[in-house]
Amino acid sequence: MVNADRAHAADVLVEGELVTAVGPSLVAPPGARVLDCTGLLVMPGGVDPHTHLAMPFMGATTVDDWHSGHAAALAGGTTSHLDFALPVEHDLLAGNAAWMEKARRGCLDYALHAAVTSWSDKTASDMATLVARGVSSFKFFMAYKHALMVSDEQLLAGLARSAELGALAMVHAENGDAVEAGRAATYAAGVRGPQGHALSRPAAVEEEATGRAIRLAGLAGAPLYVVHVTCAGAVAEVARARAAGQRVVGEPVLAGIVLDEAAMWDANFTRAAAAVMSPPIRRRAVDGAALLGGLVSGVLGPLGTDHCSFNSTQKAAGRDDFRLIPNGVNGIGERMVLAWHELVASGRATPSEYVRATSTAAAQAFNLYPRKGLVAPGSDADLLVFDPRGRTTVGPRSGASDTNLYEGLEAAGRVAHTISRGRLLYSDGGPVTCEPGTSRFLPRPPFAPTMYPAKWGWEEGAGAAHDLSAQTRPEHREHSEHSEL
Q1: Is 163 within the bounds of a domain?
Q2: Within a domain: residue 71?
Q3: Phi-psi region of 408 (alpha: psi -120 to 50; beta: other; left: phi over 0)
Q4: Is residue 58 part of a domain?
Q5: Is 224 in contact with 248 (CB distance < 8 Å)?
Q6: How many domains does the chain have?
Q7: Which helix (H) or strand (E) holds 385?
Q8: Is residue 485 part of a domain?
Q9: What backbone phi and psi angles, to 5 degrees, belong to 73?
Q10: How far apart are the first and last CA of the chain?
Q11: Which end of the chain is more exposed for a tag (fewer CB within 10 A), N or C?
Q12: Cβ-based neighbours of 477, under 8 Å, separated by 6 or more
């Protein structure tokens, strides 16, 4: 059995939705179903901190909804995720309601971030309402000018409000003005294909925005989570801030550690367009190596996917103009096994460091720990049973998409079983059981102890939300999938 702190031989007893015992030579109760995991690893199910299911974007909607996305996650060993709710006409509450409705098609546990795309007194008020409902992280876009991007003034206000509420502020860090200039210049130079996406958004625009966001967060006194870090310069900005004592989390994504920007130069448009995401995939030998180093050392993490899957028909909208290719890649079903290959099978990391990167770090950053990201008495029975001696070949499809960015990759390791809330929903390459309507919303209290250590444990009642026994008592459990707090 492997947790982020140690690996040891043990049995795991699950009763209902919870782990109730962990230890050597446990006796199974009469009538219990027994999974023989001899020679296998039992780990916390994957927690993907960054997904976009059924999201409208760039004139299209991601092909994976909450059913197909959850099915792909289960087959890949992921048991819970955090999705981004976009506002409806800049209205945060309307956006949250829309995403809760979409989530009814799913079967897994999920939490929500809220994207902030404008600023007003109502926005500030709605942020407080969402925190009270268990949505305690807010994303600000520094790119996508004239669509999602906020100004520095708005970002600074949002960072300060997040700190006031005990929420975690998140940023998409690219210099939006520089990106727009680069896109126009690249197109004017005659570049039309997917490689124009990489050329128009060089690493410098990400590095600059990452440093700027970190400094603004420092001014506001706010912890900061930088999504999809892709370049060595941005890694250095995160490392520098953390070394100075600032609370900054840098999130690499699967594509950045597995693939190379050369994918966007593929002569086959469909394959090249499948690799278009923002920020772009960078140079694996330089930037990918920095991401892996940061992930193994603890400077970066958790590892996300930015799962935002568009099919070949949707991507073909930009066949003659790279600026029209919907930005996004798949990964929710491939993350766990490919990360094992890159981290553990390569000799870079231990199994416990792998668990931190793929599960525990996300649960801690977003205040789901120890309910998620841990196998211990009282934690949710979300388990990945993994065969480290197995092999996986990534297939040509991913979820509902007719393409798979990782098609053909060979990886050490295999998902043997996936258990969600005590339900064995995937086993040994068989069909996935994903009953629509069985998803469950995970409310998250503010002031996560890893993000606000000075607040936690000192004020009356502050520790209760983070006490494992308190979280797992019936009155603290959220059994209704979509009810509000």
Answers
A1: yes
A2: yes
A3: left
A4: yes
A5: yes
A6: 1
A7: strand 383-393
A8: no
A9: -60, -45
A10: 34
A11: C
A12: 471
Tokens 């981290």 sit on residue: 343
Which has the closest alpha carbon to 227: 242, 243, 213? 213
Pairing of strands 41-44, 56-57: unpaired
Q: Which two tokens stand for residue 262?
A: 């050369």
Cα dist from 27 to 84, 419, 422, whole Å: 42, 20, 18
Query: Tens place of pLDDT for every residue, the chain, 485 residues?
Result: 999 999 999 999 999 999 999 999 999 999 999 999 999 999 999 999 999 999 999 999 999 999 999 999 999 999 999 999 999 999 999 999 999 999 999 999 999 999 999 999 999 999 999 999 999 999 999 999 999 999 999 999 999 999 999 999 999 999 999 999 999 999 999 999 999 999 999 999 999 999 999 999 999 999 999 999 999 999 999 999 999 999 999 999 999 999 999 999 999 999 999 999 999 999 999 999 999 999 999 999 999 999 999 999 999 999 999 999 999 999 999 999 999 999 999 999 999 999 999 999 999 999 999 999 999 999 999 999 999 999 999 999 999 999 999 999 999 999 999 999 999 999 988 999 999 999 999 999 999 999 999 886 554 444 434 343 344 333 333 333 322 22
Collect all residues with Cβ–Cβ distance below 8 Å to 225 and sequence separation of at least 6.
137, 168, 169, 170, 171, 248, 249, 251, 365
Query: Exposed, middle or buried by CB within 10 Å (0-12, 13-18, 19+), for 393?
Result: exposed
Quick check: 137 and 84 in contact, CB under 8 A?
Answer: no
What is the extent of the structural domain holding 285?
11-476
Burial letters for 97-107: b for 16+ Cβ neighbours within 10 Å, e otherwise?
ebbbebbebbb
Pinpoint the alpha helices (H) of 304-372: 312-315, 335-340, 351-355, 361-365
Looking up residue 377, the CATH number of its domain turns out to be 3.20.20.140
Helix (H, G, I), strand (E, B) or coil at 362: helix
Name the residue among 9, 12, 72 with its Cα closest to residue 374: 12
Tell me the C-alpha distance between 116 and 304, whole Å: 20
CB 48 within 8 A of CB 374: no
Regarding beta strands 440-441 and 109-116, do their DSSP bridges make them parallel or antiparallel, or are they unpaired?
parallel
